[in-house]
Write a structure and sequence with these properties.
It is a single chain. This protein is mostly helical. The protein has a single domain, classed as Up-down Bundle (Amino acid/polyamine transporter I), CATH 1.20.1740. The chain is built from 19 helices and two strands. Strands 1-2 form a two-stranded antiparallel sheet.
């Protein structure tokens, strides 16, 4: 390793970055969370929850996209908050985002371990009339630590590749994902149309005794005689809980900002436009279609969905896509689907580690973001190989992923649920700051555009044809994203306050707030 080199290599092309952004959003969120959304809110409200979550994300990324197009800086996630709000806010945002991504990395590894425990209850198979008495993998009895170890090593090694080769690999991963998801949607449409197991009509899961929305909401699933909400109030709270769960699935849009230092096409405006407009729309459509078609074949009260607690994330046997195949007596495909879900979660873990290492390297390049007594360590973290790979930041970020060995605990699904909830809150704090930064940015450039003393004031005029990128109503969208994010942060786990009080869920949901304020005052 060179002791002097501290810069990353600008070898990522536009197609690499766009596919990386897409691939980052396709982890276990779509495949394991969609069934939870359908159970909590019902098939119709689950789609509404996804649209609401994506509208918030779209607003945030549009804010980031416009600022990045006008000022193509390195580390925009914390550079813009530092420039337009306060330096301390910028540094705190950088650290909280890094923390979120190492937690997401651990969560993806935990999900991989869960997916290897693929086993259906024989009673369930008998109840739905599946042609085989058992459906399970022989790996179901293996220790989760085995899979965590294997995939931790794999993700670490991939992240040691030079960035150009890494980008090509991510492009390959993303192509496989988008192809398989499209085929998965077609599969569910065909199953619904052909109805191997006959029903009254093709929308039977949307009609009585089921419906557009779930008819009740359990505040504490799994607890005997726990509080149950019905009526419009119950539907609203079910929708809100589903929105919080859906947000995790969209984390990763900001990849275009994180890869700024390695993106050779960053100053091409089309790169930003594609990531903030077309990519956002494509991912939203895939999530909506995936959840809609899956919900056509599985009712919201399916026993395998009922067993999912709101704070849990379980294995493939709780996926609405696998349940659709099982309920329609289709062999082989459930195992193929579960294998793809493992691939998807593992590759998303690879990407989460990449983002975490690049965020830490960007922070290491700013001496002011570190205490004086940590400067020697900071300089070591700043170093890169001759190929531009930040080995030290990859190693540090990877080491935090060792918390994924929590998969060996008695209730790994609950641990995974709490970890993902923590990551969501940390990311929401980052998104809140981005929206606030844009609001200040908007008024600053408006003042600059009207300042007669500036020779290049037309560069800041949003109505000028030369202005690189803007969207209509963006100031309103910034306020919308800001308010939405704040509400999600404050009420992301409102259930923890309903007796009996759950201290573990409370800490997992709100420790991110304390961490951010602690970083702010340090």
């Amino acid at each position: 390793m060179s002791s002097r080199r501290t810069v990353l290599s600008q070898n990522l092309k536009e197609r690499h970055v766009n596919m990386m952004s897409f691939s980052a959003c396709i982890g276990f969120g779509l495949f394991l969370q969609s069934g939870k959304l359908i159970h909590i809110a019902g098939p119709g409200l689950a789609i509404v929850a996804i649209v609401l979550a994506s509208s918030m994300m779209w607003s945030v990324i549009a804010c980031l996209g416009e600022m990045t197009a006008l000022f193509p800086v390195q580390g925009p996630l914390f550079e813009f908050p530092g420039r337009f709000i306060d330096e301390a806010v910028g540094y705190a945002t950088g650290w909280i985002t890094w923390f979120a991504y190492v937690v997401i990395f651990a969560a993806e590894m935990l999900a991989v371990a869960q997916l290897w425990k693929f086993k259906f209850d024989p009673e369930y198979l008998k109840e739905v009339g599946y042609p085989d008495a058992t459906l399970e993998w022989s790996t179901a009895g293996y220790s989760p630590a085995v899979w965590v170890f294997i995939f931790l090593i794999m993700t670490g090694l991939i992240n040691l590749l030079p960035v150009r080769q890494y980008g090509q690999l991510e492009y390959f991963f993303g192509t496989i994902k988008i192809t398989f998801i499209s085929l998965l949607i077609v599969f569910n449409v065909i199953v619904s149309a052909m109805q191997p197991v006959p029903h009254n009509n093709h929308f039977w899961t949307w009609n009585k005794p089921y419906g557009f929305a779930s008819d009740h909401f359990l505040i504490h699933p799994g607890q005997a005689n726990g509080p149950v909400l019905t009526g419009n109030g119950g539907k609203f709270l079910a929708l809100w809980t589903s929105v919080v769960a859906a947000v995790f699935s969209f984390v990763g849009f900001e990849t275009i900002a994180i890869t700024a230092a390695e993106n050779k096409d960053l100053e091409k405006y089309e790169t930003v436009k594609l990531a903030t407009k077309k990519l956002s729309l494509r991912i939203t459509i895939l999530y909506v279609l995936g959840t809609f078609t899956g919900g056509l074949n599985v009712p919201y009260n399916d026993p395998n969905l009922i067993n999912i607690q709101t704070s849990e994330i379980r294995g493939g046997q709780n996926s609405v896509f696998i349940l659709a195949a099982v309920r329609n007596h289709i062999r082989v495909w459930p195992s193929i689907f579960n294998g793809f879900f493992i691939f998807s979660a593992a590759t998303s873990g690879v990407h989460a580690l990449f983002n975490a290492s690049r965020l830490l390297h960007a922070l290491a390049s700013i001496p002011e973001a570190w205490p004086l007594w940590f400067q020697n360590t900071r300089r070591r973290l700043e170093r890169t190989t001759d190929c531009g790979v930040p080995l030290a930041t990859v190693a540090v970020s990877w080491s935090i992923g060792l918390i994924s060995f929590l998969a060996v605990k008695p209730f790994p699904s609950i641990v995974l649920g709490r970890i993902t909830n923590n990551a969501v809150v940390s990311e929401l704090i980052c998104y809140t700051v981005i929206c606030l930064s844009y609001i200040v940015f908007y008024h600053r450039i408006k003042e600059a555009a009207n300042d007669p003393t500036l020779e290049n004031r037309s560069a800041f005029n949003r109505d000028d044809k030369q202005y690189p990128y803007r969207t209509h109503g963006q100031l309103f969208r910034a306020y919308y994203g800001l308010v939405f994010c704040i509400l999600l942060i404050v009420f992301n786990n409102w259930r923890a306050f309903v007796p009996p009080f759950n201290a573990h869920d409370f800490v997992a949901s709100y420790i991110g707030h304390s961490l951010f304020w602690l970083l702010l005052i340090m």
